[in-house]
Specification:
Rossmann fold; disordered N terminus; seven-stranded mixed beta sheet; Aspartate Aminotransferase, domain 2; alpha/beta
Length: 698
């Protein structure tokens, strides 16, 4: 076969990127990956080797496996490796639909000259793993009814909104994970090869895999409308159902950027239109160039039919796996993520709400409230935001014309809610052990004011301070109600009592960055009598939802059914979220032992925090703003502080606290940082954060 160097699209000069083009393409790539994840959900399940054996043959070590996967059992596989000491770089080989495992891995003579690609790659120095899904057309003879096994499987999967390609991609992701965990494989030097349908599997597995992997795709290029429509040469197994609502095949390849990519196609391939393939290749090159990765992709027109240019594939992996595959990693301050199962559940709830026409104060909101009651141990009402929850709680108490005491270290909404409810505010210093309100400072404030209507406590960073007990006692002795601002603290507890169950009322935020989210929204928890008034106030103070008779001055603080669908789906996952956050926090605890310049905050005994924030203290003399800028250049964004600007430093309160000193809060506000910590955070991301801190603080 002949390759035309002049037609090698990767050699085209990248076009200059216009302003905003990189961001636009990057956003398109994210949407494409999200669509693939929605249409081909990955279950993160492991391959389990049920049987294995080993032999040496013609200078290669051959291992035979039978794998089980939760979605498919009895998957035959063969691993080939050089007969030398490992570890080796590895390639997962995804053959075409009609390729036999025996022919691909050298167990039998190849039925086409380029079929035994796994053997060639193994001889080039790679450990290869080839899976056999038993979907070749010839396998129909093994079925009693003689039906095509792929057709049968596809019919079964479509009943559940699934597809053959999604199943194969899910299994390939599990195989990549299995390879990365082998002691004889270099985990950062793993690639994917696919031919024909196998190229579609390799492409989708790479889009779904958590790490960037080089991909070599042979005989699978063009536009879906041409491949499936005008040519009608591809069957339904090579594309995800509904994919054209979101992306065409060149868009899927482009979304791999900046990972190394080689696409081969034959000028004489009867399943492709060469002109259509060339146009698609140009689109892939343009997509890569738009994000500054034009040199990472090559598209090879080859004088061949529906085959593989094996030497070119081996050369590609030699280049792309010569060193660990490292794409510049960036760790965001936070990442909001819903897996495919959760997104499907949310979609169903939203669709039900739209179909019913009940878009607010309906059954989904009631479901969220019941879930919160079970979790917190008190009745709850869903409202439009955490800020609304605070204002409603203070209106229930009736603070208008009197003083509300709030911590000086809190979000602006804590104080603003009291002011909107008609109160005056005064600020109280914090204590540093539990990050809560300082009991001594509270006693001083209570002595100064004889009209205190309520005290608002804030569970900073998800820590329910042990000092809360003394604060509650001080308030109880004076008959002053307490409101918990538990915006940070869903899932936190003190001595076995959940946040939200200490005060007369409590307010939770379900903002996107919180531990559990509804997109926008909040919760008020209270006992039955107060909760009845909360529900009236959130609906303009109506006497009932069905009649426009207003007994109280409320407002539109309702939560829509659409937001409630997100919250009602996310809240049942709270235990898993907390487990992951606590695991990540323990990882920071261990890793930061090597960064003596940074002192992690120690959670007090009796506190079961949710690690909404992972707090640590900087040494004297470190400019936090400058440090954050330097970390950003290393790809690390610290999470927002809690808080760096105290209430007495907010411009709105410039004249409210003249000459006041809040020593503990001022020290905390100036010295702490919050490290990025979020579900789905990879170990390598945490290592990057710690390495960056070590470098900048050493």
């Amino acid at each position: 076969m002949r390759i035309d160097p002049g037609a090698r699209l990767s050699r085209r000069s990248p076009e200059p990127r216009a302003d905003g083009r990189e961001a636009e393409q990057a956003a398109r790539n994210r949407r494409t990956r999200a669509a693939v994840a929605r249409l081909a959900p990955v279950h993160r399940a492991a391959l389990r080797a049920r049987e294995s054996s080993e032999e040496e043959h013609q200078g290669l070590r051959r291992r035979y496996y039978t794998f089980d996967h939760p979605r498919r059992e009895g998957i035959r596989a063969v691993a080939l490796s050089p007969d030398t000491a490992g570890p080796w770089p590895a390639v997962l080989v995804c053959p075409g639909r009609n390729a036999r495992l025996e022919a691909v891995t050298g167990l039998s003579a190849p039925d086409h000259p380029d079929r035994d690609v796994a053997v060639h790659l193994a001889r080039a120095g790679y450990l290869t793993l080839t899976l056999d899904h038993g979907l070749a057309r010839g396998d129909s003879a093994a079925r009693p009814d003689g039906r095509d096994p792929a057709i049968v499987l596809d019919g079964e999967l479509r009943l559940h909104g699934d597809s053959v390609l999604a199943l194969l991609a899910d299994t390939a992701v599990a195989a990549l994970t299995w390879l990365a965990g082998r002691p004889d494989v270099e985990p950062e030097r793993i690639g994917l090869f696919g031919h024909s349908l196998g190229a579609a599997v390799a492409l989708h597995a790479a889009l779904l895999y958590e790490e960037p992997v080089p991909v070599c795709a042979a005989s699978h290029l063009g536009g879906y409308p041409t491949m499936f429509g005008r040519l009608a040469t591809w069957d339904q197994f090579a594309a995800l159902p509904s994919i054209l609502r979101y992306a065409d095949l060149p868009d899927l390849y482009s979304a791999l950027a900046p990972a190394p990519l080689q696409i081969q196609y034959g000028r004489n391939d009867h399943l492709l239109d060469p002109a259509d393939a060339a146009a698609a290749g140009n689109r892939v090159q343009d997509g890569y160039s738009a994000v500054g990765a034009g040199t990472a992709v090559e598209v090879l027109p080859v004088d061949m039919g529906h085959g593989t240019a094996i030497d070119q594939a081996a050369a590609f992996f030699s280049r792309s796996l010569a060193a660990p595959v490292r794409v510049r990693a960036e760790v965001p301050a936070a990442r909001v993520g819903f897996d495919a199962e959760a997104r499907e559940e949310i979609t169903d709830l939203v669709d039900n709400a739209l179909a019913s026409g009940t878009l607010t104060l309906g059954p989904v909101g009631a479901r969220l409230e019941e879930l919160a009651r079970q979790r917190i141990g008190r009745g709850s009402a869903a409202v439009s935001s955490g800020s609304a929850a605070l204002e409603i709680a203070l209106r229930v108490i009736g603070v208008a014309g009197r003083t509300v005491l709030v911590p000086v270290n809190t979000f602006f909404a804590t104080a603003a809610g009291a002011i909107r409810a008609g109160a005056r505010i005064d600020a109280v210093d914090m204590e540093l052990d539990g990050l809560g309100m300082d009991p001594g400072a509270l006693r001083a404030a209570l002595a100064e004011h004889d009209d205190v209507a309520a005290v608002v406590l804030v569970h900073i960073a998800g820590v329910v301070s042990p000092a809360l007990t003394e604060v509650l006692a001080e308030c109880a002795a004076r008959g002053i109600p307490v409101v918990e601002d538990a915006a940070h603290a869903l899932g936190s507890a003190l001595d076995g009592t959940n946040a939200g169950a200490f005060g007369r009322l409590a307010a939770f935020s379900l903002y996107p960055t919180k531990v559990i989210t509804s997109g926008e929204g909040g919760l008020v928890t209270a006992d039955a009598d107060d909760l009845d008034l909360v529900r009236r106030l959130r609906d303009h103070g109506k006497r009932s939802f069905e009649e426009n008779v207003h007994a109280f001055l409320g407002s539109n603080w309702r939560m829509s059914e659409l937001h409630a669908a997100v919250g009602a789906t996310h809240l049942p996952r709270l235990d898993a979220v907390l487990e992951e956050r606590r695991r990540l926090a323990a990882g920071y605890d261990a890793r930061l032992a090597d960064v003596p310049a940074l002192t992690p905050y120690t959670v007090p005994p009796g506190v079961r925090g949710n690690y909404y924030k992972y707090v640590a203290y900087l040494p004297d003399g470190v400019d936090r703003s400058a440090l954050k800028q330097r970390l950003r250049k290393r790809g690390v964004a610290l999470a927002g502080e809690v808080y760096d600007t105290l209430l007495n430093q907010q411009p709105f309160f410039a004249d409210a606290f003249p000459g006041r000193v809040f020593g503990n809060a001022e020290w905390f506000a100036a010295r702490h940082v919050c490290l990025p910590l979020f579900p789905g955070m990879a170990e390598r991301e945490q290592e990057l954060v710690v390495d960056a801190l070590q470098s900048e603080l050493s």
